[in-house]
Structure formats: C-alpha cells, structure tokens
Write a structure and sequence with these properties.
Layout (H helix, E strand, L loop, with lengths): L1 H49 L3 E3 L14 H7 L8 E3 L5 E6 L1 H6 L5 E7 L2
Parallel strand pairs: 1-2
Antiparallel strand pairs: 3-4
Keywords: Membrane, Transmembrane, Transmembrane helix
Protein name: Cupredoxin
InterPro entries: Cupredoxin
C-alpha cells in the first residue's frame, strides 16, 4: 500500500508539472495570437485608409443633366465618401471648377475660384 501511495504522489507531481507547462504554453500561444491579431488589424486599417475608392458618378447616367433634380442626391445618399476617394467616370475625362454662389447663379465663367482638370 505504501508503494502505491508513493506512485500516486509521483504521478500527481508529474501531472501538476505537466499541467503548468501546458498552461504556460497556452499563455504564450494566446499572447502570440493576440499580438498577431493586432498586427493584422493595424495593417488592414493602414491599407484601407491609404487607398481611396473610385466612384462612378451617377452610375450609368454619368455626368449628364439628369431627368430629376434629385438624381445625384439620391446616388450620393447610398454611398459613404472618405478621404482619397475619387469621383468621376472612368470612360471620360472631366474638369471640375469651384465658384461662389452668385457667380454660379449668374453664369460668370471668369469668377472661378479654383479648377481641377484631370483625366480619369
């Protein structure tokens, strides 16, 4: 009976040591997986913010005079715009000019504040 008791103690000690090794190994694995997850999230965020989306304005309608005045507002309301996004039509080149409201209302071509003329 004494031999069985010492074998049991030896077995229990091995289990405790092995259990600690398993727990330590699991802690290292959890730490590594957490670190790897953070790296993946950071890289994904950097890639996502660095590159903008190209939006084809008006879908198939393009840059034309729409049949309804709300066409472009409706088109834009279904999209989420971010920094570095490009608005345009890949098949055609377009220019954009900014002017103040009175100049625009009076259609004064020389009162343009800034202009961007660039191909798609």
């Amino acid at each position: 009976a004494l031999a069985n008791l010492s074998r049991l103690k030896f077995f229990l000690n091995i289990q405790i040591i092995t259990g600690r090794k398993i727990i330590t190994t699991m802690n290292y694995m959890i730490t590594f997986i957490s670190f790897l997850s953070v790296i993946v999230v950071v890289v994904t965020m950097l890639l996502y913010t660095a590159d903008g989306w190209r939006h084809k304005v008006g879908n198939n309608l393009g840059w034309t005079l729409p049949p309804k005045s709300s066409t472009y507002s409706t088109w834009a309301s279904h999209r989420r715009f971010r920094i570095n996004d490009i608005l345009g039509d890949p098949e055609n080149d377009h220019g954009v000019a900014a002017s103040c409201k009175p100049s625009f209302s009076l259609a004064l071509p020389r009162k343009v504040h800034s202009a961007v003329i660039q191909g798609s």
